[in-house]
Specification:
alpha+beta; 19% helix; 365 residues; 7 helices; 7-stranded mixed beta sheet
Length: 365
């Protein structure tokens, strides 16, 4: 078990003395990372993964795949340090081709010691990329999990001529004018963090391919589905502790997050049964997890129900959040200096996103 000490001031009014005291807390890191094109080298006849093969456009070789595994393992073993010397006990991930790449990942030397479990379902995304959850079996025990589809149709969201024909998430089913946009499912995992029940939703919302404005309602629908899942959990238990995390392809201030999900950026504004987004304040400061044309945004977020915001730390509650930007994750030269160090034709990088994390803490009595 890993612990931290947090100091605070105690004021004795009758003597006007001020002195520090410390309390001891258990600490756990919860993380999310977009693994960026985490493909094996095998051509899957049922998905559009041809470019991620040795003969494909990316020249994705066994050597590059092995390096990608090492790179991801290093990141996942270090997110949340130095405050917490333990690796994250729960990790949401996206852009994952299949369960097999995750099985290879958790066998890497830097991760093997953490005895990670996997929750994964195949999604209908045409590129064959999914979301998944990794967890340290010592600290988290899943008891139920399901993949919840996001059902959206292009004809109901936007005029066809407004959308690019090259829409990453699109697979048209030519039956009865069915123009469904096939995208990643939302993964719901319920279980016990030590002896406390929590629920995690892992997301990769529809992309902006085809234009941000033209595809905005796709992501708003994703936010509304998230809210519906949370509402259903709160109907069963009004004090349900729910974390929703993922690459939302929108920032904290976009309609999908602010209106669809209803996230608030200040704790004081979060109503009962509402949700809090600690990454909104970071976005307001110009911080980011992904950059495009030198403009930064925070697409990767971990959002929580109001039940995690209690000042009573007799149970696990939210302490603080962060973006993990170790120096080795940052491009150091060239046109994209300062950007996340991603894959190139020459070598396997890390990701075009920085990972994000939160700390949950509980007072040791």
């Amino acid at each position: 078990m890993h612990f931290i000490k947090i100091s605070f001031l105690v004021i004795i009014l009758n003597s006007f003395q001020v002195y520090p005291q410390s309390k001891k807390y258990k600490i756990h890191t919860i993380a999310f990372y977009n693994f960026e094109n985490f493909y094996d080298t095998i051509d899957d006849a049922f998905t559009n993964d041809d470019e991620w093969t040795p003969n494909g456009a990316q020249h994705w070789t066994t050597e590059k795949y092995q390096q990608k595994l090492k790179n991801l393992a290093r990141v996942l073993s270090e997110i949340g340090t130095p405050e917490n010397s333990n690796a994250p006990i729960i990790i949401g991930g996206s852009e994952i081709e299949n369960r097999g790449v995750l099985e290879d990942l958790i066998k890497e030397p830097k991760l093997q010691q953490f005895d990670l479990g996997i929750v994964h379902f195949d999604s209908p995304d045409k590129r064959g990329i999914d979301v998944a959850l990794l967890y340290q079996k010592k600290y988290f025990r899943p008891v139920s999990f399901s993949n919840i589809p996001l059902i959206i149709y292009k004809k109901n969201i936007a005029k066809k001529e407004e959308l690019s024909e090259d829409l990453d998430d699109e697979v048209e089913v030519k039956k009865e004018n069915n123009n469904r946009v096939f995208t990643r499912d939302q993964l719901l995992v319920s279980g016990f963090l030590e002896d406390e029940e929590i629920h995690i939703i892992v997301n990769h919302w529809p992309s902006r391919s085809g234009g941000e404005k033209a595809t905005s309602l796709f992501r708003e629908a994703a936010g509304k589905l998230n809210r519906k899942i949370i509402d259903s959990l709160q109907r069963i238990n009004p004090r349900a502790k729910v974390l929703t995390m993922g690459d939302l392809n929108d920032g904290p201030l976009n309609n999908s997050v602010k209106t669809g999900l209803g996230a608030k950026g200040k704790k004081a504004d979060v109503p009962e049964f509402g949700v809090f987004n600690p990454f909104e304040e970071m976005a307001n400061k110009g911080m980011g997890t992904i950059a495009f044309r030198d403009s930064w945004n925070i697409f990767d977020q971990i959002i929580m129900t109001e039940s995690f915001l209690k000042n009573d730390f007799s149970t696990f509650n939210f302490w603080k959040a962060g973006i993990f930007k170790a120096p080795y994750l940052i491009q150091t030269s060239g046109q994209y200096k300062g950007y996340p160090l991603r894959n190139t034709l020459a070598e396997a990088g890390f990701s075009d996103h920085f990972p994000v994390y939160i700390y949950l803490i509980k007072e040791v009595q």
